[in-house]
Amino acid sequence: MAKQTGSGDRRVRGSRTGRPIMVLLDLLGRRWALRILWELREKPLTSRALRTACDEASPTVLQARLTELREAGFVELGDGGGYGLTALGRELGEMLMPLHRFAERWRSKSAG
Fold first, then answer.
1. pLDDT at 3 (0 to 100)
2. Whether 10 contacts 68, CB under 8 Å
3. What residue ranges in the chain does DSSP mark as E strands?
4. In whole angstroms, how far apart are CA 34 and each of 16, 84, 98, 111?
């Protein structure tokens, strides 16, 4: 995750402002970040199950994204060792569902 600056803003790749929307989009745009959130939307998964769900993503990259998503407050490690969404992560998932529905409509229109 991006480091804190003295002013409390977070640094973002390609942005000097550190505005919250830019920080969020930077995090979500990182490889596998959205896929991890998507795969955890229904239930917690162990590292191995999550890796399988993510098409055998590199364990190193997967762990790096999980660390970033945990630091951001979207993912937590449960008592049973599985990863799950926090309340904030579930809220983000709800916010992404209209985009998911749009993507489904867009795909069906562009396929014709």
1. 43
2. no
3. 75-77, 83-85
4. 23, 14, 15, 24
